[in-house]
């Protein structure tokens, strides 16, 4: 047979038509034109934008680096308030219309979920505690970069929000999370206040949410934001490359903690830009600002143990609310 062309985008979108069954009916594939269904078109375009970031910027051939077809299912469930990566495909709910709009409306959400796939095929970080918060943070980082690149935004111009536009007008909030200012994304009578800490002083010890993976991810999120804005220009070009190098280095243990991840980004900056370079200094300064600067001056990190198996869940939306 003919060898597949590396970097070629394969994608397909299916419609679950309000049922919680996967994959649903195939409604768009190959290079079919856009139809009338907004959710189908948004999912289709988001798969393309995410593929483009990983291939055109980082040279990764789809999420598995072997050209995996990117598949999405829309209209999952009735008024379903979530989007998730199930290990094989992206799944999007339509939202309940009261708190959430349709989940395809946010490109950062699409990029976030597909990045869970990249992480699954690379570092495979255990989805609990600090390694789980890093897993979540990586999805927020690359989800944000997908949107920034799609919109042609510099690090200074970007909004650094995850899920902007997901909340309906009835909610007092801008987005699910902010990388720039964790803890400020929403403050609503019903949903409460965005609980994310912005540094280690606010670190949350909890058994909920797999050990706070959607909470404490604010800490590495802000570190990345600080590195990217210190370096300026387009965040995907330098800061994003350092984080991508770290994710795909093969040196992260499955149970890596924040300090170990910070050291790994420092090593990646040294490998690409040199010790004491502007880029290396920016990485150290970013982690130091969130309380994780210890041991970064040396660039010597240790590989963490494998840790226990994490759950397969990659639930996106941490909000819980009374029915």
Automatic annotation (TrEMBL):
It comes from Cryobacterium cheniae. Residues 301-323 are annotated as: Disordered. The active site is at residues 113, 214. InterPro entries: Metalloprotease_M4, Peptidase_M4, Peptidase_M4/M1_CTD_sf, Peptidase_M4_C_domain, Peptidase_M4_domain. One of its GO terms (molecular function) is metal ion binding. Keywords: Hydrolase, Metal-binding, Metalloprotease, Protease, Secreted, Zinc. Residues 43-120 form the Peptidase M4 domain. It comes from the Bacteria. It is found in: Secreted. This is Neutral metalloproteinase. CDD domains: M4_TLP. Extracellular zinc metalloprotease. The keyword Secreted applies. Belongs to the peptidase M4 family. Residues 123-291 form the Peptidase M4 C-terminal domain. GO terms for cellular component: extracellular region. Gene3D superfamilies: 3.10.170.10, Neutral Protease Domain 2. The keyword Secreted applies. Its cofactor is Zn(2+). One of its GO terms (biological process) is proteolysis. Residues 301-314 have a biased composition (Gly residues). Its EC number is 3.4.24.-.
């Amino acid at each position: 047979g003919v060898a597949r062309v590396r970097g070629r985008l394969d994608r397909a979108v299916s419609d679950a038509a309000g049922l919680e069954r996967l994959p649903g009916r195939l409604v768009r594939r190959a290079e079919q034109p856009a139809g009338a269904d907004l959710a189908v078109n948004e999912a289709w375009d988001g798969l393309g934008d995410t593929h483009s970031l990983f291939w055109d910027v980082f040279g990764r051939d789809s999420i598995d680096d072997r050209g995996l077809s990117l598949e999405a299912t829309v209209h999952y469930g009735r008024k379903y308030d979530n989007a998730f990566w199930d290990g094989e495909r992206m799944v999007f709910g339509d939202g309940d219309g009261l708190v959430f709009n349709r989940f395809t409306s946010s490109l950062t959400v699409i990029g976030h979920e597909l990045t869970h796939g990249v992480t699954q095929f690379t570092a495979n970080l255990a989805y609990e505690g600090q390694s789980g918060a890093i897993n979540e943070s990586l999805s927020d980082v690359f989800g944000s970069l997908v949107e920034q690149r799609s919109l042609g935004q510099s690090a200074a111009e970007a909004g650094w929000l995850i899920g902007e536009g997901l909340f309906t007008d009835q909610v007092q909030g801008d987005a699910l999370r902010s990388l720039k200012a964790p803890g400020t994304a929403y403050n609503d009578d019903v949903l409460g206040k965005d609980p994310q800490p912005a540094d280690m002083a606010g670190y949350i010890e909890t058994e909920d949410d797999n050990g706070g993976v959607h909470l404490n991810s604010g800490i590495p999120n802000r570190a990345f934001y600080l590195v990217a804005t210190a370096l300026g220009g387009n965040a995907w070009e330098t800061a994003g490359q350092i984080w991508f190098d770290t994710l795909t280095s093969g040196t992260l243990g499955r149970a890596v903690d924040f300090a170990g991840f910070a050291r790994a980004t420092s090593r990646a900056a040294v490998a690409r830009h040199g010790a004491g370079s502007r880029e290396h200094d920016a990485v150290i300064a970013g982690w130091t600002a969130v309380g994780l600067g210890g041991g970064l001056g040396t660039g010597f990190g240790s590989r963490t143990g494998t840790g226990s198996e994490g759950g397969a869940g990659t639930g996106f939306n941490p909000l819980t609310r009374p029915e």
